[in-house]
Amino acid sequence: MSHSKETVPLTITTLCAEATLPLRHQLLRPHQGIEQCRYPGDEEAQTRHFGARYGEQEAGIVSIYHVPCPNFSGQQGWQLRALTTLPELRQRGIGRSLLETAVTYAQAQGADLVWCNARIAALDFYQHNGFITMGEPIEITDIGPHYLMVRQIEPSQ
């Protein structure tokens, strides 16, 4: 008897900022109130929020903002924030799909680089996806240590 591996569809869609708040709160800032999960720039015209569905389940989110990168003045920087997937759905390509969707959007807007403040637990993920660590860890109040990470973007054709 052969067993076929079930394929579950992964869908990435654009969300409004409000729709990202439950997962931001649950997965990234459970020790804070939901209001602390609203970020500066969430409602800016160029900001985009993306959500992933794995089958019928909400699986992850990411947001990308037109924000210059520290130490890279003169370049079109876009900041990646709140990239997260449900722990039970990790290692299935969901985070990578969300990341690439956000990077593709920033590239279409003329980005030279995408940057983020990465939690130490996520360093390997970002390094495997083309980001490099810049400098020493920084402490983000009430969240913990992070590294500034940068990925250069090839000009879109």
From TrEMBL:
Residue ranges of every copy of the N-acetyltransferase domain listed in the record: 5-154
A GO MF label: acyltransferase activity, transferring groups other than amino-acyl groups
Keyword presence, tRNA processing: no
Pfam families hit by this protein: Acetyltransf_1 (PF00583)
Keyword terms, alphabetized: Transferase
Entry keyword Transferase: yes
InterPro entries registered for this protein in UniProt: Acyl_CoA_acyltransferase, GNAT_dom
Top-level taxon of origin: Bacteria
Name used for this protein in its record: GNAT family N-acetyltransferase
Organism: Candidatus Reidiella endopervernicosa
Taxon lineage: Bacteria, Pseudomonadati, Pseudomonadota, Gammaproteobacteria, Candidatus Reidiella
